[in-house]
Write a structure and sequence with these properties.
Elements: H1 2-25, E1 28-36, H2 47-62, E2 71-79, H3 84-96, E3 103-107, H4 109-118, E4 125-130, E5 145-147, H5 155-165, E6 170-176, H6 179-195, E7 198-205, H7 210-218, E8 223-227, H8 230-242, E9 251-255, H9 276-283, E10 287-291, H10 307-320, H11 335-358, H12 371-382, E11 386-388, E12 391-393, E13 405-411, E14 414-422, E15 427-430, E16 447-452, H13 457-483, H14 488-491, H15 495-515, H16 527-561, H17 572-596, E17 600-605, E18 618-628, H18 632-656, H19 668-691, H20 696-728, H21 744-802, E19 812-819, E20 832-841, E21 844-852, E22 866-869
Parallel strand pairs: 1-2, 1-3, 3-4, 4-5, 6-7, 6-8, 8-9, 9-10, 16-18
Antiparallel strand pairs: 10-13, 11-12, 13-14, 14-15, 17-18, 19-20, 20-21, 21-22
The chain binds gamma-amino-butanoic acid.
Residues 44, 46, 108-109, 130-133, 149, 180, 257, 334 line the site of gamma-amino-butanoic acid (ABU).
Length: 875
């Protein structure tokens, strides 16, 4: 019995000492849920490395006696394929299947956006090891969301810092149409604007990046930030290759969390039309930015491991899972974040347990409706800080991880670290390991060299020389006209008008010099002044030169078209008033133009051109200066319209007076020819210059030659004949009068002669009328005489019939008897001439005196008819 009692006691002791403590040491489970993107093809399949890393952390946490004493952390997880729908399904599955999960772990932004927004309904804290979307920093939308993965916005200050380092101020963005990238680009745009960096274009695509990449090329993008998941990145890279957007002229910024050989994997599965080699070629030289996910200092972390130790363990774990012969699994970069996420959960739970223990409560009381414990869990997570394998883990008020970023470059198909950047301290650690093709930092744009199109110097000098010769010649002609002002030839050519023409010609020729004064000679500030001078000089020059010729031709027309009743005198002052009026109109228009809407320098920009020496990345941007005011068309229309009317009217007057030669204006026909010449040239030049205004040399040459031609021809037509005449007759008497215009006496004499001429014409007309009347009378007389002769003949016939004798020959012989003076030798004039008729009457010849000679003053009618009988013997 004693043995049995002792046995019983021993059993009790054993139970108390051995079994009970053992039973108490069996940890109670603390359950959390995990959602890992492992399978699938789109998005981020980072669960491949992150899930093993999380499991390593679970082991380490559960082995720590000081952490979650009496509890064991359990992770129930499933694959979301980085699809938000499936992620939501996994979450419901985890929540609606016991045991109750205290927290959720998640990865992949699209999934975390879904579960992070929904988790608050179950009072659950969500901690993400792999979501970068800046949208997740919205505390209103995701009130219980934390992440060990830094927000993608941490890349942006780094990108900008690198851009500033290389003086790139013009960048382009291409993004996949996912919220994670959209919100990253929005942040980048704001930061670029603040940094004075121009975003030349922002291209977005859903699945096919072909058009987006082409648009980048079209926009001449050189520095391009690309934001997309890795499978989309491969499609983009293939398009980059096809569009030749790689090499020494381009720099691409990609996201740095792709696996190292991302550009040559899955090419066949994803049906990419690029070979590995092509992809490698296109990827060469690109930069990546990434938050630092591996602790860069070789220090012991909370788990007692350094980052290096962790890498070894992780590599082993991945080998154990069959990744040995494969390339680095997706999520390898983020694996420390997943490891540290589990530690964060454990620390937060631990802290919550302590807080709850202080009020005699247990974390096991947590339900999805227990807001109080949820609040404690949130607070504990918010306060969590430790040194993890990913670096110092701490959460901002937005739940974001604060981290260093690193910059890498792909050199010979491998990533090389270029430096680190810490945004809070603006600390850029740079290793100067970057390599650029051609050892030249790529430019952010094609260098556009502005090239002002100016008039060729040779052409300018030629035209200026000719116009100077013309101006000197005009001045010589002024002197010549003055020197010979007393000569009649000059006086009768209205020399004052000729002088005005010469002054106008000098101004017009001077305007050629101003027309050629462009940007090669004057500054931008001086250019408007040159514009104004051009307008004044050419307008007034034309008005003086043409106006004076116009007034002369107008005077000629007046003199030849007025009736005799009107006063045909045109006072010289009227001509001056006419030219003066034209000038006044010009001055008014030009002054108003200048005051209201002054001529300004306007640059016409032409399409970019390749330089002749074909230097790469340099384009020539031709520019041409124009003088223009805001309402240029109105002002030009006003001046051209008014001048055009003058030209047309001048042409009409010149045509009307083409054959008139006046003593008062002896060169009117030459002036008329000169006007033809000016009109024709002006009518051709004005429209042609408008058409060729974009070709500075052609335009300048055309206008200059037109002006030169007009001026020289006018001078030649109007002045050369005068010079020739004066040279030929140097000794001609000169008029004493100093007045170059015809004298008053001459004018009066002229008018008197005109009057006499008209009087004579009137007398001639009267005489001619008289002659006509006399002719009529003569005709009537002739008719009467004929009639009388007929009557006489009838009477003779009647008489003959009365004296009729049978056998009488009625044939009559006429003869003329002339009595001449004795001295007939001297005086041939007969004294008397008598016509007689010999005829047969009554059988014998008879004589009859018919009429005396008219010259004798006898009257035919008054002469008696006497008949003689002549015996035959006598005859
Ligand atoms: N570093 C991986 C991020 C993945 C994501 O934001 O979806």
């Amino acid at each position: 019995m004693e043995v049995s009692a002792w046995t019983r006691v021993a059993w009790v002791v054993m139970v108390v000492v051995v079994v009970i403590p053992r039973a108490e040491a069996t940890p109670r489970p603390l359950n959390i849920g995990g959602i890992f993107p492992i399978g699938g093809s789109d998005g981020w399949q980072g669960g491949q490395a992150c899930q093993p890393a999380a499991m390593l952390a679970m082991e380490d946490v559960n082995q720590r006696p000081d952490l979650l004493p009496g509890y064991e952390l359990n992770l129930a997880w499933n694959d979301s394929l980085c699809e938000p729908g499936l992620g939501a399904a996994v979450m419901y599955d985890l929540l609606y299947n016991p045991p109750t999960k205290l927290m959720l772990l998640g990865g992949c932004s699209t999934v975390c956006t879904t579960i992070g927004e929904a988790a608050k309904m179950w009072n659950l804290v969500v901690l993400s090891y792999g979501s970068s979307s800046p949208a997740l920093s919205d505390r209103q939308r995701f009130p219980t969301f934390f992440r060990t993965h830094p927000s993608a916005t941490v890349h942006n200050p780094t990108r900008i810092r690198v851009m500033q380092k290389y003086n790139w101020s013009r960048v382009a963005i291409i993004q996949q149409a996912e919220e994670v990238f959209i919100s990253t680009v929005e942040d980048l745009e704001v930061r670029c604007k603040d940094a004075g960096i121009e975003i030349v274009t922002r291209q977005s695509f859903l699945t096919d990046p072909t058009d987006a990449v082409r648009n980048l090329k079209r926009q001449d993008a050189r520095i391009i930030v690309g934001l997309f998941y890795v499978s989309a990145a491969r499609r983009v890279l293939c398009e980059i290759y096809k569009n030749k957007l790689y090499g020494k002229s381009y720099v691409w910024f990609f996201i740095g969390w792709y696996e190292d050989n991302w550009f040559e994997n899955h090419l066949v599965e994803e049906n990419l039309n690029c070979t590995r080699e092509e992809m490698k070629q296109a990827a060469e030289g690109h930069l990546t930015t990434e938050a630092l996910m591996w602790n860069k200092d070789n220090e012991k972390t909370i788990s007692g491991m350094t980052a290096g130790d962790f890498r070894l363990r992780l590599n082993q774990a991945l080998i154990d899972r069959g990744y040995e012969n494969q390339s680095t699994p997706v999520g390898y970069q983020e694996a420390p974040l997943a490891y540290d996420a589990i530690w964060s959960v454990a620390l937060a739970l631990n802290k919550t347990m302590e807080v709850l223990a202080a009020v005699n409560r247990s974390i096991e009381e947590f339900t999805y409706t227990n807001e109080e414990i949820a609040r404690e869990l949130y607070k504990a997570m918010n306060a969590t800080q430790f040194l993890g394998v990913s670096g110092r883990v701490a959460f901002s008020t937005d739940g974001d991880r604060i981290a260093w970023t690193q910059v890498e470059q792909m050199i010979d198909g491998r990533y090389h670290k270029l430096g680190y950047y810490h945004v809070q301290t603006d600390n850029l650690t740079w290793f100067n390991r970057e390599q650029w093709i051609g050892s030249k930092v790529p430019q952010d744009r094609t260098i556009v060299r502005r090239q002002l199109r100016t008039v060729s110097l040779a052409l300018f000098i030629s035209m200026c020389t000719i116009s100077t010769i013309g101006a000197v010649w005009a001045l010589f002609l002024l002197g010549f006209t003055f020197a010979h002002r007393h000569r009649r030839l000059i006086q009768l050519s209205h020399p004052a008008c000729n002088n005005i023409t010469l002054v106008g010609i000098v101004l017009c020729l001077g305007s050629i010099f101003l027309l050629g004064l462009d940007g090669q000679f004057v500054s931008q500030q001086q250019f408007p002044t040159v514009c104004g001078l051009r307008a004044w000089c050419l307008t007034l020059g034309f008005t003086l030169a043409y106006g004076a010729m116009f007034s002369k031709i107008w005077r000629v027309h007046r003199l030849t078209t007025k009736t005799k009743m009107e006063n045909k005198r045109v006072e010289p002052w009227k001509l001056y008033v006419m030219v003066g009026s034209f000038v006044v109109v010009d001055v008014i228009v030009l002054s108003v133009w200048q005051a209201v809407d002054p001529l300004q320098r306007r640059l016409e920009v032409f399409p970019l051109e390749k330089p002749k020496d074909a230097v790469e990345d340099i384009k020539i941007k031709p520019e041409l200066e124009h003088c223009e005011s805001k309402h240029n068309t109105i002002w030009l229309g006003l001046l051209y319209g008014y001048k055009g009317l003058l030209l047309i009217f001048g042409l009409f007057l010149a045509y009307e007076t083409r054959s008139i030669k006046l003593k008062q204006i002896n060169d009117s026909r030459l002036v008329g020819m000169s006007i033809y010449n000016v009109v024709v040239l002006c009518l051709i030049t004005a429209p042609v210059t408008l058409v060729i205004s974009t070709q500075q040399d052609a335009s300048f040459a055309f206008v200059s030659l037109a002006i030169i031609f007009c001026c020289f021809l006018s001078m030649a037509l109007v002045f050369v004949p005068k010079i020739v005449e004066i040279v030929r007759h140097p000794g001609e008497r000169v008029e004493a009068t100093g007045d170059t215009a015809p004298s008053k006496e001459e004018e009066e004499r002229y008018h008197k002669l005109l009057h006499e001429n008209e009087e004579m014409q009137r007398l001639i007309a009267e005489k001619e009328e008289k002659i006509r009347l006399l002719k009529l009378k003569l005709q009537e007389r002739t008719v009467l005489r004929n009639r009388e002769q007929q009557q006489q003949q009838q009477q003779q016939q009647q008489l003959a019939s009365e004296n009729h004798v049978a056998g009488v020959d009625y044939s009559t012989h006429h003869m003329r008897l002339r009595q001449v003076s004795k001295d007939s030798q001297k005086d041939t004039q007969p004294l008397l001439t008598t016509d007689i008729e010999l005829y047969y009457g009554c059988g014998r010849p008879a004589v009859r005196i018919v009429t005396p000679d008219a010259s004798s003053g006898g009257d035919h009618a008054s002469v008696p008819r006497i008949s003689f009988d002549i015996s035959e013997s006598y005859l």
